[in-house]
TrEMBL record:
<dbReference type="InterPro" id="IPR050463">
    <property type="entry name" value="Gfo/Idh/MocA_oxidrdct_glycsds"/>
</dbReference>
<dbReference type="InterPro" id="IPR000683">
    <property type="entry name" value="Gfo/Idh/MocA-like_OxRdtase_N"/>
</dbReference>
<dbReference type="Pfam" id="PF01408">
    <property type="entry name" value="GFO_IDH_MocA"/>
</dbReference>
<protein>
    <submittedName>
        <fullName>Gfo/Idh/MocA family oxidoreductase</fullName>
    </submittedName>
</protein>
<dbReference type="InterPro" id="IPR036291">
    <property type="entry name" value="NAD(P)-bd_dom_sf"/>
</dbReference>
<dbReference type="Pfam" id="PF22725">
    <property type="entry name" value="GFO_IDH_MocA_C3"/>
</dbReference>
<dbReference type="GO" id="GO:0000166">
    <property type="term" value="F:nucleotide binding"/>
</dbReference>
<dbReference type="InterPro" id="IPR055170">
    <property type="entry name" value="GFO_IDH_MocA-like_dom"/>
</dbReference>
<dbReference type="GO" id="GO:0016491">
    <property type="term" value="F:oxidoreductase activity"/>
</dbReference>
<keyword id="KW-0560">Oxidoreductase</keyword>
<feature type="domain" description="GFO/IDH/MocA-like oxidoreductase">
    <location>
        <begin position="112"/>
        <end position="242"/>
    </location>
</feature>
<feature type="domain" description="Gfo/Idh/MocA-like oxidoreductase N-terminal">
    <location>
        <begin position="43"/>
        <end position="100"/>
    </location>
</feature>
Length: 322
């Protein structure tokens, strides 16, 4: 099999080598070279894998679909829900395979967490609390990620993964949500050292209610002074599941010892442990001509939730305490 990878950052650094390790030959194309993208999409390939910045997703996905190719697109799947729906609808109309790169569904600890939930080990899931506080963006140079006008922001960069994980774990869609955003580092130097204003959020807090009644509180900041352990807590009617740093999963039940599961990640990029099993599934789906999830429908569902959250960012809604 052969794939075109559009993207010289994460696509070239992590995705293309992963495809190669699975026996899929890759050609990496710069997302900023329109002629090269058009030429690559005109070739006979088995998959076009889009890892360009989100403001280019629509153009690149549509270019691949115009040639009838199967497409894998990275999150957040375009600038907004209208772009996401347009890409999804075009793929459906053509009848081609389409995949969304929500690879963290395949993270081993989250796979085990999902299995424990589905087995009913904590009874009925009632609430999820999730905290992701880190310093990963703190020293980064100004680029599209920090520009709201370019579909940047931490909501799209990580919130998209979080929303999909919540949908995956709960088996339910987001029914209601609200969020508040903040930009903790308001100016950053670009590559030339010129100070630029950051217009996109690097932190946000949100609440959600899933269609099945489960409530969610999600808090994240990624320009913090230090990195804290990520903590995902799921409260059920009969017990609690707690996942720390995607490494240690603990089942806590009343009147019995805790049950713990350890997951040591592989060396290298933190995406690898999730990306390898996910792309193995994609390769098998391509060979079999079989649609699998997560797909463009999942991308649309997440985009619609993010649009609702962005609307609440802008409205700054909330009851004022007298």
């Amino acid at each position: 099999m052969r794939a075109i990878v559009i993207g010289t950052g994460f696509g070239a650094r992590v995705v293309a080598p992963t495809y190669e390790s699975l026996g899929i030959a890759c050609t990496v194309v710069s997302p900023h070279d329109d002629a090269a993208v058009r030429a690559a999409c005109a070739e006979r390939v088995d998959l076009v894998s889009v890892h360009s910045p989100p403001f280019l997703h629509h153009a690149h996905v549509m270019a691949a679909l115009d040639h009838g190719h199967a497409v894998l697109c990275d999150k957040p799947f375009g600038r907004d829900a209208p772009e996401a729906r347009a890409m999804r609808d075009r793929a459906r109309a053509l009848g081609v395979l389409h995949f969304l790169n929500f690879e963290f569904r395949q993270q081993p600890a989250r796979v085990r967490l999902k299995a424990l939930l589905d087995e009913g080990r904590i009874g009925m899931l009632r609430h999820v609390g999730w905290s992701v506080i880190g310093s990963g963006l703190r020293g980064q140079k100004h680029r599209w990620l920090f520009e709201a006008e370019q579909a940047g922001g931490w909501l799209g960069a990580y919130g998209s993964h979080a929303i999909d994980t919540l949908r995956f774990l709960t088996g339910s869609e987001v029914a209601q949500c609200s969020a508040v955003a903040r930009t903790e580092i308001t100016t950053r130097p670009d590559k030339q050292g010129v100070m630029r204003r950051s217009t996109a959020e690097d932190a946000f807090s949100s609440w959600m209610r899933m269609e099945n009644g489960c409530t969610v509180a999600f808090d994240t900041a990624y320009s913090a002074p230090i990195t804290l352990p990520q903590r995902l807590t799921l409260l059920g009617s009969d017990g609690v599941l707690e996942l720390v740093d995607d490494r240690r999963l603990t089942l806590r039940m009343p009147d019995r010892p805790d049950e713990s599961f350890d997951f040591t990640p592989p060396d290298g990029d933190p995406h690898i442990g999730s990306l390898v099993p996910w792309l193995e599934r994609v390769a098998a789906a391509l060979r079999d001509g079989r649609q699998i999830a997560p797909d463009f429908d999942d991308g649309v569902a997440v985009a619609e939730t993010m649009d609702a959250m962005r609307a609440s960012f802008s409205a700054n809604a909330g009851a004022v305490v007298p």
